[in-house]
Write a structure and sequence with these properties.
Elements (H helix, E strand, L loop, with lengths): L2 E7 L3 H11 L7 E7 L14 H9 L3 E6 L5 H9 L6 E4 L5 E2 L1 H12 L8 E8 H4 L8 H9 L8 E2 L2 H7 L9 E4 H7 L12 H10 L3 E11 L19 H14 L7 H18 L5 H12 L4 H10 L1 H14 L2
Parallel strand pairs: 1-2, 1-4, 2-3, 6-9
Antiparallel strand pairs: 4-8, 5-9, 6-8, 7-9
Helix pairs in contact: 9-10, 11-14, 12-14, 13-14
């Protein structure tokens, strides 16, 4: 397979410089697209604080394509802008502050060795979370690792994931960087990132599972994800931009309403958004919570009566959470 890596970046020259320096020695990538979301200063080889020789190598590497938006529009727009320029048959979306681990190269080798190496929609792999690494762990947070085990996806080499396993593995956090996608799958299915300030990767993650025909899994730990618990990262925002999450959720609910074959994903999706609503509410500035609750009520009204009945029959606890959210929203 030919592989592209898309890297959205905003004001992270040090992180981007470290990642690109690492990737110079990785032969797995045929195309590297840096998508600058109006960074100041711009993301350019000579402005990353790298040694002159390294900067010159990056500037002359034919695999690298440097894109820039003059207006900050978020990582979702940056990924979409880069997606339109991909020329390879596979792609991975990565973050500038994360790192590839040696298992990534091993996974690419295993995928290339498969007879069906072009006949899967995406391959999802494990990662190590920096919060877990700081405590001596070598994998994801415990909650995600438990889902991997429950899905039967902890096998030594990439394997096809059955539907039952997919409805389990979709429950992991919505990461954009833990999957190697077949580019044509994303394009034919019309899957893109939602162009909103935060939560822009929800649609990419969930639509991938909802529309994929063949999913591969690998237990290999292929990257380290760095989490800044506090600070000014976009993921720590507490303002009205959180309301835009409904752009992504509405698209996913519509897909479930129109594609009855995906009914098996109804319960995990309901589990996900009910917990997400509580998490966002805790993050929000107190004066915004009533307005957000009204948005929640409007979204929950899009769940059809048949869907709610099925949720209540299969998972009464989730149905009870929906009822509590509706009651809390109407106060």
């Amino acid at each position: 397979m030919s592989l592209c890596v898309v890297i959205p970046v905003w004001n992270d020259p040090a992180g981007l410089g470290r990642l690109l320096t690492q990737m110079l020695d990785m032969a797995e990538f045929d195309q590297i697209i840096i998508s600058d979301d109006a960074s100041s200063p711009p993301a350019r080889p000579d402005l990353l604080g790298l040694p002159e020789e390294t900067a010159r190598t990056l500037a002359n590497d034919p695999r690298l394509l440097w894109l820039r938006s003059e207006i900050q529009r978020g990582a979702g727009h940056a990924r979409n802008m880069a997606f339109d320029q991909i020329t390879t048959n596979h792609v991975i979306f990565f973050d500038s502050d994360d790192r590839f681990l040696p298992d990534f190269s091993q996974l690419v080798t295993e995928l290339n060795a498969r007879d069906d190496r072009l006949d899967y929609d995406f391959c999802i792999f494990r990662h190590v979370d920096s919060r877990n690494r700081s405590k001596g762990g070598l994998g994801p947070l415990g909650s995600d690792d438990g889902i991997w085990a429950g899905a039967g996806a902890m096998t030594a080499s990439p394997k096809l994931l059955p539907l039952q396993g997919a409805t389990q593995l979709v429950r992991i956090s919505a990461y954009p960087w833990n999957k190697i996608y077949r580019t044509a799958f994303l394009r034919e299915a019309g899957i893109r990132c939602t162009e909103i300030p935060v939560h822009n990767d929800l649609e990419l993650h969930w639509m991938s599972f909802l529309k994929a025909r063949r999913i591969l899994t690998s237990r290999r730990v292929c990257c380290e994800h760095f989490v800044e618990v506090e600070g000014k990262r976009l993921t720590n925002r507490s303002g009205r931009e959180r309301f835009e999450v409904f752009q992504a959720l509405d698209a996913l609910q519509q897909e479930l309403n129109e594609n009855l074959r995906r009914v098996d994903f109804l319960i995990p999706f309901a589990e996900f958004y009910t917990r997400l609503f509580s998490w966002i509410t805790d993050k929000l500035e107190p004066e915004l919570r009533d307005s957000f609750a009204a948005k929640v009520r409007a979204f929950l009204r899009k769940v059809t009566e048949a869907q709610y009945t099925l949720i209540a029959l299969r998972n009464p606890a989730v149905a009870a959470r929906i009822n509590r959210l509706l009651l809390a929203s109407s106060k």
